[in-house]
């Protein structure tokens, strides 16, 4: 018996899957012409990210508050979006001395999907739910999906929400169906791609800028920088060790010899050396003040000042 219900209207095609009329004759152009078309289209990326900044700022504040309580940030994505999440999370450890497991990137298909496409991985709602369900009420789950329709991301956000985590979708589709599974939807409206459906282009660039902005602002909020200096960097090689010397020279107005001597007294820890140089407490006391103030140089210096000038 035929159903009396009218057929469901198909969801509108994501802008990232639509043809871009401005690049219709792409293969008729010379190489410089191709690059110019791509560069002109890339201008939309900065506008899209700028429009999303108020929402992004709210997300940073929410994530910072939860991380101060011991929570974590988890990125979920497939393909390019997943790789960008993993990349952003992995760069925070050496750059800001962030403890492993505080910001984590998950890609559909696991580690193998970082370099090779894993068949049907992004379609696995169950895989997303399995990982998302491991989150807790102090965590933040950020789904990244250009089309906003990835089942893996939907499953992760739904399970994370059920676990009490704060959930956000970052997409390039105003009508992203997965947005209904998240508490907030950060839209990066970059429009159709130069090559239809190739979201490693504008959509991916906008996502990378957004993740860079989010994670950097989050690290600043958590005291992982001092002024505009990368004071939490892990000096794991000679280049980075020399950078810590330069930072200390510039920040504390020390000679190179003085900076090296101070770093040696502080076991090579730049944050400790900064607190010592500005407060004249011992390295041991400086470490204590940093521990009491979540590793923030600014807060540790202020704490010493309050003790000396109650």
Could you please describe the fold and organization of this structure?
- There is one protein chain.
- By secondary structure, the chain is α/β, with parallel strands linked by helices.
- It folds into 2 domains: 207 residues, Glucose-6-phosphate isomerase like protein, domain 1 (Rossmann fold), CATH 3.40.50; 71 residues, Helicase, Ruva Protein, domain 3, CATH 1.10.8.
- Helix content is 49%, strand content 8%.
- The chain is built from 10 helices and 5 strands; from the N terminus they run αβαβαβαββαααααα.
- The protein has a 5-stranded parallel sheet, with helices on both faces.
- Strand 1, helix 2 and strand 2 form a beta-alpha-beta unit.
Give the low-pLDDT segments.
1-9
The coarse silhouette is globular
Our count of domains comes out at: 2
Largest sheet: 5 strands, parallel
- Number of beta-strand segments: 5
How do the strands of the widest beta sheet line up side by side? 2-1-3-4-5
Helix and strand content put the structural class at alpha/beta
Provide mean pLDDT, rounded.
92
Continuous helix count: 10
What key attributes describe this structure?
310 residues, alpha/beta, Rossmann fold, Helicase, Ruva Protein, domain 3, 2 domains, 5-stranded parallel sheet, 10 helices, 5 strands, disordered N terminus
Task: Walk me through the topology.
Blueprint: H1 31-68, E1 73-77, H2 79-96, E2 103-107, H3 125-132, E3 140-145, H4 151-162, E4 166-171, E5 184-187, H5 202-221, H6 238-252, H7 256-265, H8 270-279, H9 283-292, H10 297-308
Parallel strand pairs: 1-2, 1-3, 3-4, 4-5
Helix pairs in contact: 1-5, 2-5, 3-4, 6-7, 6-8, 7-8, 8-9, 8-10, 9-10
